[in-house]
Design a protein that fits this description.
By secondary structure, the chain is mainly α. Helices cover 59% and strands 0% of the residues. It has helices at residues 3-17, 31-40, 46-59, 63-67, 71-78, 84-101, 110-114, 121-132, 141-149, 158-168, 171-187. Helix 1 packs across helix 11, helix 2 (31-40) packs across helix 3 (46-59) and helix 2 (31-40) runs antiparallel to helix 6. The longest helix is centred in the middle third of the chain and has 18 residues, at 84-101. Bound molecules: iron/sulfur cluster. Iron/sulfur cluster binds next to helix 9.
């Protein structure tokens, strides 16, 4: 089976296995909060962000108050997420950027999203998929690990992985691929102890990098 055929089959199997696969960040359907939550989710889990973000939105309920908030107070609130200094700078910088450049609207184009402080390709793809319904390959830690193990890429560079996956996963399946592979990575193909014997992808998986 060619890699592109395997990729399509992987999406089919995982979408049946995880019919509820979706973005897990809770942002109350306020677009800028999704953007800022995704920035805060670097190097931690969506669940951790969901525990912390309500206090941030309560203290600073709009972009103006958040952009102008005392930095130490923002750092104190998001401290549990790790990298709290850099993340505080990014979310306040992003809030100020949105106010100055778009009146608070979250842009749709990749180029515009990448101009926002703290926004990289992963965050841009989350936003494009979740807010704008556009096809997006979201290369987070799970998609990165599983794409390698499944033999869909030989790279560990997220931008290169995204390019490799673009050749294999059709646009209509990209967001579903990202979310369902993410779910599988949290539940079965974990970083430390993948449960290959119980894995629905076992017959399709070369288990690259595993002994
Ligand atoms: S067979 Fe093993 S390595 Fe491959 S996707 Fe399943 S759990 Fe991961």
């Amino acid at each position: 089976m060619r890699a592109s055929e395997r990729a399509v089959e992987i999406v089919r199997i995982l979408s049946e296995e995880y019919p509820g696969a979706r973005c897990m960040l809770e942002y109350g359907k306020v677009p800028y909060r999704l953007l800022l939550s995704t920035i805060m989710s670097a190097q931690t889990t969506d669940e951790a962000v969901n525990r912390v973000s309500p206090a941030l939105w309560e203290a600073y309920p709009d972009l103006v108050s958040l952009a102008g908030a005392p930095r130490p107070e923002v750092e104190r609130i998001i401290h549990p997420l790790g990298f709290f200094r850099a993340k505080s700078a990014s979310i306040q910088g992003a809030a100020a950027w949105l106010l100055e450049n778009t009146g608070g609207r979250v842009p749709e184009s990749f180029d515009d999203l990448l101009r926002i402080p703290g926004v990289g390709r992963k965050t841009a793809n989350v936003v494009r998929a979740e807010l704008h319904g556009l096809p997006a390959l979201i290369v987070d830690t799970h998609v990165k690990r599983l794409s390698f193990r499944l033999g869909l890429t030989a790279s560990d560079d997220p931008a290169r992985i995204e390019t490799d996956l673009e050749k294999l996963v059709p646009p209509r399946s990209r967001t579903l691929f990202s979310h369902s592979v993410g779910f599988h990575g949290r539940r079965v193909c974990t970083a430390r102890k993948p449960s290959c014997a119980a894995c629905v992808l076992a017959s399709l998986c070369p288990r690259k990098g595993l002994a």
